[in-house]
Amino acid sequence: MARRRKVYEGKAKILYEGPEPGTLVQYFKDDATAFNNQKKGIITGKGVLNNRISEYIMLRLAEIGIPTHFVRRLNMREQLIREVEIIPVEVIVRNIAAGSMSKRLGIPEGTPLPRSIVEYCYKSDDLGDPLVSEEHIAAFGWASPPELDDMMALALRINDVLFGLFAGVGIRLVDFKIEFGRLYEDEDVRTVLADEISPDSCRLWDMRSNEKLDKDRFRRDLGGVAEAYQEVARRLGILPEGGPNDLKGPAVMQ
Ligand code: UDP
Hints:
alpha+beta, D-amino Acid Aminotransferase, Chain A, domain 1, six-stranded antiparallel β-sheet, five-stranded antiparallel β-sheet, 6 helices, 13 strands, globular, binds uridine-5'-diphosphate
């Protein structure tokens, strides 16, 4: 295959020029980082699983009208996406206290929140993605007020869908991080879901045992990281027993 031009390399993914203008190829690596790059490692097979899991989630979201950058999966580690301009704001949605919120506010991990909470962080590795308010986002022009409205509304809809989707397979969606991009189409600019949604960017706890099925296993040295990601894929019905091309619907838990 012809050598493609690398457009961007991040911590867990690489973006290559796509086959047509306005498209990119998103390649999922096995590399894992945590604590703003201070901890590094490789989780064998993670890229393959995240490619599949993110594809599955983006397709489910598209079905209910959430605009996304996803076009189609190309192979085990790559997917074709629409090229967007990433809005430099990470949107975090929380259903249960954990991680930085527990630390910051002294709420024990696992405490259900009275309502879903949306937080924003400014995307900056140098600054460690600091928590910011809508005021900062508007004042510094990171996103326009209508874009912010779109991001908030889409984030809550995504949370509703994913909460139900994971609950259906016995997994509690504790929190997750998403990113949005600007999709330029003719004269129009649309806010669309970009990046990925996977166990790298979600906290997922088994409903019965509370076992962690996400990147916290890597962050906290709990072991069995790849197995946990595999379990998420298996429950969603995308780790088929009949081979990699045998796509089935989700295995609903009793
Ligand atoms: N998250 C992420 N990338 C980041 C920061 C957070 O994907 O750079 C996800 C994380 O996996 C969790 C949620 O966002 O599902 C909330 O993370 P938190 O703010 O608690 O930060 P952490 O404790 O992971 O540092």
